[in-house]
Amino acid sequence: MTTAEALAANGQESAETRAIAARVRAAGSSFYWAMRLMESERRAALFAIYAFCREVDDIADGEAADAEKRAALAQWRDRLAAIFDGRPGTPLERALARARARFDLDRADFEAVIDGMEMDAGAPIVAPDATELDRYCDCVASAVGRLCVRVFGAPAEAGQTLAAHLGRALQLTNILRDIEEDAARGRLYLPADLLAAHGITGRDPQAVVRDPRLISVKRELAARIAGEFAAARAALAACDSGDLRPAAIMMAVYERRFVRMRARDFAPEPQSPLHRLLGRLEKLWIALRLAMKGPRWRASM
After folding, report:
1. 145 and 290 co-located in one domain
2. CA-CA distance, 31 to 113, in Å (whole number)?
3. 106, 138, 160 — which closes off a domain?
4. Cβ neighbour number for residue 10 with a 10 Å cutoff
5. Alpha carbon distance 199, 191 (integer Å)
6. What is the C-alpha to C-alpha distance for residues 157 and 91, in angstroms, rounded to an integer?
7. Whole-angstrom Cα distance, residue 30 to residue 61?
């Protein structure tokens, strides 16, 4: 490659990287600024991973028929094959190819994310057994974590443990928060064994959310989530290399949200403009506090 060709290639890469970053910022991610903390190569890789996750999630949650969703997700499997075979075509594919080469990203983790989207794109999930729920959390959350910890430069074993526990903590927090909203869409992610343990045997999501025994289900699930956050903190503390600030910020924000949810015994969260403003300011404060630690911090949560 000539010098002129190299400069042109670098210019194209920079333009594509900026375009993907703009898409991530426009998506309104709560953790855009956490990703911005990273040095340029890591930041570009995280933006590409986020953009991929956003695209497949939008397919799963869209208004298209299930068959169309499955076809669109299958196309993404073909696109992954092209990326990992060295044939990326679109700007996002090229960004993912660069991230894959730089950080040795595992194709199986990208495939797992698509598996999770296919679970949501098909028949509604209703009271899964424990194994199915754990697989769902792994696909839609922990697999993303496994991609990210490679970019963060976390030690292999501690990073994998962090991805597993933090992924479950975040996804179960979302499930706990969204029980009523999911029920309106015919979904019920609460595990069958937990429902049965509290005497709830019906499988109509709307009937379950009206059952007075649901509060005890929520409390027990919250105890499980607290254990996952504790295990994630221990794994983060064991990460003595890499830049783990985005993971720390995400965990801190979610755990504060979880603690407040538990403190009000799962009553609906206030939605006033002031409350939303305070929530945004709190996220900013957490990000700034952890950003001050610098990229070579040793986690001591």
Report:
1. yes
2. 19
3. 106
4. 10
5. 13
6. 32
7. 19
Amino acid at 202: G
Q: For position 281, what pLDDT does the model report? A: 58
Percent of the chain beyond pLDDT 70? 84
- Best CA proximity match to 225, nearest among 196, 194, 204, 199: 194
Among 184-188, 193-197, 248-252, the minimum mean pLDDT is found in 248-252
Contact 253, 212 (CB under 8 A): no
CATH number at residue 208: 1.10.600.10
Quick one: pLDDT at residue 87? 96
**Stretch 248-262: mean pLDDT:** 92
CA distances from 207 to 79, 83, 180, 204, 219 (A): 41, 45, 11, 5, 19
Say yes or no to pLDDT of 188 above 80. Answer: yes
Residue by residue, what is the 3-state secondary structure of 115-128? HHHHHHHCCCCECC
128-174: pLDDT as tens digits: 999 999 999 999 999 999 999 999 999 999 999 999 999 999 999 99
Section 187-207 average pLDDT: 97
Domain assignment of residue 267, given as a range:
124-277+286-294
> How many domains does the structure of the chain reveal?
2
Question: Among 111, 115, 110, which residue's Cα sits nearest to residue 99?
Answer: 110
Taking the CA atoms of 301, 260, 36 and 16 in sequence, report the sign of the dihedral they define.
Answer: positive
The label of the residue with tokens 């597993």 reads 164
Cα–Cα distance between 196 and 157 in angstroms, integer? 35
